[in-house]
Specification:
Radius of gyration: 25 Å
Strand content: 15-25%
CATH topology of the largest domain: FAD/NAD(P)-binding domain
Number of domains: 2
CATH superfamily of the largest domain: FAD/NAD(P)-binding domain
CATH architecture of the largest domain: 3-Layer(bba) Sandwich
Number of helices: 13
Number of strands: 20
CATH class of the largest domain: Alpha Beta
């Protein structure tokens, strides 16, 4: 059996390794159109590689995927987060869990993961073809004929497509020509640009737990929020962008957000805290007595936004000042005009329609012998290691079940 794996990223490598492990007699060739392998693994997590997430309950795990939740439920039953951790650790790569659940190699270096994958592929005898793109797939009897960039043709019995997401619909044209329905791609994980908002002056400030709402929609997410020199980022923003990928695209990335700087805090609780300050610290300056645990620079900014003078005390603030401050803390509004996508780590929603793929085997329901792994399908997770987990899972299954029989 000859197997072609198209795409040298996380899903492609795992699929190639799985193919060779489960079908040692097979000839497995991995085609990568560029000259770099595992490039997203290299830059993930700031160069540390966020391998997976410490969520070991399959039902809970699927809830982190804006697209693919139902599809992945069965897949995670075959290869779970636990299996990922075990796979790497049995090959000498120990993982650690950080406070937010993200898992990294204890070396804090993505090269550890890259070396593990490339060494295993080499040991098994996976053949690597770099800078040799597959331009066209022709279905023939008992397999496929691949037309390659170097103008050669290559016969294989099975194909695993793991080319990742594409920012443009044209990137999927060669798969559409095989008869597949393509869900149009749009960016999924991106940050919010706020060119006209002064809050950008606070770049570097982090609020540990804020809640974001997109006005005019049902989108709402909570988590750490980072103020940047172009606007806002951090998990709260990235999760909002993931769950709202298509909605925000339809809005042309022009919308307003409401920020609750105190997470899920309610108005009565905030007013109670303020009344306590007025009763017990009425002579203290508001700027120096911050009862909400917000970063000092942000607290000062919010006071200025409400036109409260620098030296005003809690005793002087007055009912009107309190009302304005409460509203700003719980319903601060900012205008978003555009997005910033991290090109090295871009994630898209869209790709091969999941209705056309078996969630037991990853085999195409349209083209027998053709399999898919990773983000080339309409699967994407929120930030935190979930996209890599779906890559490991779908790659493992596609490689193992090349003969089409589910376990």
């Amino acid at each position: 059996m000859k197997v072609a794996v198209i795409g040298g990223g996380a899903a492609g490598f795992f699929a190639a390794i799985s193919s060779k492990q489960h079908h040692p007699e097979a000839e497995v060739i991995l085609f990568e159109k560029g000259y770099k392998l595992l490039s997203k693994v290299k830059v993930s997590g700031g160069g540390r590689c966020n391998v997976t997430h410490a969520c070991f309950d399959g039902n809970q795990l699927t809830k982190h995927y804006p697209r693919g939740e139902k599809f992945l439920k069965k897949a995670f039953g075959q290869f779970s987060t636990t299996d990922t951790v075990e796979w790497f650790e049995t090959r000498g790569v120990e993982l650690k869990t950080e406070e937010d659940g993200r898992m990294f190699p204890i070396t804090d270096h993505s090269q550890t993961i890259i070396n593990c994958l490339t060494d295993k592929a080499s040991q098994l005898g996976v053949r690597l073809e770099l800078q040799n793109a597959v331009l066209y797939i022709d279905r023939i009897e008992n397999g496929f004929n691949l037309s390659l960039k170097d103008e050669t043709h290559f016969f294989v019995n099975k194909i695993i497509v793991a080319t990742g997401g594409s920012p443009k619909l044209e990137g999927f044209e060669w798969l559409r020509e095989l008869g597949h329905k393509i869900e149009p791609p749009v960016p999924s994980l991106f940050t919010f640009n706020m060119p006209e908002e002064k809050i950008k002056e606070l770049m570097g400030v982090v609020v540990e737990n804020a809640t974001i709402k997109v006005q005019g929609t049902k989108l709402k997410q909570s988590g750490p929020l980072l103020i940047t020199h172009w606007g806002m980022s951090g998990p709260a923003i990235l999760k909002t962008s993931a769950w709202g990928a298509r909605i925000l695209s339809d809005l042309n990335y022009n919308f307003k957000i409401q920020v609750n700087w105190l997470g899920e805090a309610k108005e009565n609780d905030v007013r109670s805290l303020i009344q306590e300050q007025q009763a017990n610290h009425h002579k203290r300056m508001v700027v120096n007595r911050n009862p909400f645990g917000l970063p000092a620079r942000l607290w000062e900014f919010l006071l200025q936004k409400n036109e409260l003078r620098d030296n005003i005390t809690w005793g002087e603030i007055g009912q009107k000042g309190i009302n304005k401050l409460v509203n700003t803390l719980l319903n601060d509004v900012y205008e978003v005009k555009g997005k910033t996508t991290f090109k090295e780590e871009f994630v898209t929603c869209g790709g091969i329609a999941l209705s056309e793929v078996s969630n037991s085997t990853m085999e195409s329901k349209i083209v027998p012998g053709l399999y898919f792994a990773g983000e080339v399908m309409d699967i994407d997770g929120i930030t935190g290691g979930f996209n890599f987990q779906s890559a490991w899972t779908t790659g493992f299954i596609a490689g193992k079940l090349l003969n089409g029989s589910s376990i």
